[in-house]
């Protein structure tokens, strides 16, 4: 199957910016996604980007897409303790009927 | 107003039993999915349905049988439960395939 890779852990101080990176292999994806999972909770669709865009901004969130390098990043500005969670990168793959997820990046925000 | 709702939230049962998880979405979406999240948090697609028709069956054992009575519901029935079935099962829906998917809160299945 196609691979989606993310670093497993990131720690930042409250108020700093966080950048979570992701690489993927399937260039046919129409959309690329970021999901957030808080402890014991479900998956929240945080943001997504259409594959013909290279940037999307939504309040504190900025998504950058480099299609040539198959690299996706999520920047969280002014990170808060409530942002502590696991962040999953996902791509919609060839069929579009299944998301391929990375293993998730655990973000820890310290005061 | 829950968009994608799954029941039950927790399911504890013994090996060999048969159990069902229900999923309903009130978003008017055409496509529904089941994913499995293992103990290491890895998420993998199990099934996807579009307008009650099976689109993807991702090498899931045939002990798992999804049923879609209408496009707002996709239930998951599991026969002869095994220890390795312990996981969190997520239901999701999207307007149609290849569009953003919205997830339920998950069902945590524990096999004793």
Biggest sheet overview of chain B = 7 strands, mixed
Oligomer: heterodimer
Mean pLDDT of chain B: 94
Q: Uncertain segments of chain A of ≥5 residues (pLDDT<50)?
A: none
Gap between N and C termini of chain B: 34 Å
- From the spread of the alpha carbons, the general shape of chain B counts as globular
- Overall body shape of chain A: globular
Q: Most extensive chain contact?
A: A-B, 23 and 26 residues
Share of helical residues of chain B: under 10%
Separation of the first and last Cα atoms of chain A: 40 Å
Question: With helices defined by DSSP (H or I, 4 residues minimum), what is the helix count of chain B?
Answer: 0
Strand-helix topology:
The complex is a heterodimer of chains A (111) and B (112).
Chain A: E1 4-6, E2 9-13, E3 18-24, E4 31-37, E5 43-50, E6 55-58, E7 61-66, E8 71-76, E9 85-91, E10 100-101, E11 105-110
Parallel strand pairs in A: 2-11
Antiparallel strand pairs in A: 1-3, 3-8, 4-5, 4-9, 6-7, 7-8, 9-10, 9-11
Chain B: E1 4-7, E2 10-13, E3 19-25, E4 31-37, E5 43-50, E6 53-57, E7 64-67, E8 75-78, E9 87-94, E10 102-103, E11 107-111
Parallel strand pairs in B: 2-11
Antiparallel strand pairs in B: 1-3, 3-8, 4-5, 4-9, 5-6, 7-8, 9-10, 9-11
A few lines on this structure:
Chain A is mostly beta strands. In chain A, 0% of the residues lie in helices and 55% in strands.
What does this structure look like?
The complex is a heterodimer of chains A (111) and B (112). Chain A is 0% helix and 55% strand. Chain A has strands at 4-6, 9-13, 18-24, 31-37, 43-50, 55-58, 61-66, 71-76, 85-91, 100-101, 105-110. Chain A is globular and about 40 Å long. Chain B is an all-beta fold and 112 residues long. In chain B, 0% of the residues lie in helices and 52% in strands. Chain B has strands spanning 4-7, 10-13, 19-25, 31-37, 43-50, 53-57, 64-67, 75-78, 87-94, 102-103, 107-111. In chain B, strands 2, 4, 5, 6, 9, 10 and 11 form a seven-stranded mixed beta sheet that branches. Chain B is globular, with a radius of gyration of 13 Å. The N and C termini of chain B lie far apart (34 Å).
């Amino acid at each position: 199957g196609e691979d989606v890779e993310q670093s497993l852990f990131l720690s930042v101080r409250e108020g700093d910016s966080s950048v979570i990176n992701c690489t993927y292999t399937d260039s046919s994806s129409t959309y690329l996604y970021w999901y957030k999972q808080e402890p014991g909770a479900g998956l929240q669709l945080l943001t997504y980007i259409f594959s013909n865009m290279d940037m999307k901004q939504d309040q504190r969130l900025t998504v950058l897409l480099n299609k040539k390098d198959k690299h996706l990043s999520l920047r969280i500005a002014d990170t808060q303790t409530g942002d502590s969670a696991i962040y999953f990168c996902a791509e919609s793959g060839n069929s579009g009927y299944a998301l391929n997820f990375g293993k998730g990046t655990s973000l820890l925000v310290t005061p | 107003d829950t968009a994608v709702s799954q029941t039950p939230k927790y399911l504890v049962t013994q090996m060999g039993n048969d159990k069902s998880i229900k999923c309903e979405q009130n978003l008017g979406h055409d496509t529904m999915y089941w994913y499995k999240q293992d103990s290491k948090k890895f998420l993998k697609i199990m099934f996807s349905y579009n307008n009650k028709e099976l689109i993807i069956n991702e090498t899931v054992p045939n002990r798992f049988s999804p049923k879609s009575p209408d496009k707002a519901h996709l239930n998951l029935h599991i026969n002869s439960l095994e220890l390795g079935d312990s996981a969190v099962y997520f239901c999701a829906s999207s307007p149609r395939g290849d569009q953003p998917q919205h997830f339920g809160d998950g069902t945590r299945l524990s096999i004793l």
